[in-house]
Design brief:
It is built from one helix and five strands, in the order αβββββ. By secondary structure, it is of the alpha+beta class. The protein has one domain. β3 and β4 form a beta hairpin. The strands form two sheets. The chain has a three-stranded mixed beta sheet, covered by helices on one side.
Length: about 70
């Protein structure tokens, strides 16, 4: 793992790693990133990447993965 890809948040880390994979290998997909405190990030560059986050049994309805296609 190239630790220089680690971002300040799990969301940023997921975005950076998937962006790098897309550059290097031309892949499409999605990445979920979790840390030891249970904080989550997600990014995708495919057509869809449904994600549901539950914390202690409660759905986190405001969580949205970053669509890298929307950033270009």
């Amino acid at each position: 793992m190239n630790w220089s890809l680690r971002g300040p948040t799990r969301q940023e880390t997921a975005r950076k790693v998937l962006g790098r994979l897309a550059e290097m290998k031309g892949v499409q997909g999605g990445i979920l990133a979790l840390d030891g405190q249970g904080r989550i990030g997600a990014a995708f560059n495919a057509g869809r990447f449904p994600v549901v986050v539950s914390v202690d049994g409660v759905l986190q309805r405001d969580f949205q993965p970053v669509n890298l296609n929307d950033l270009n």
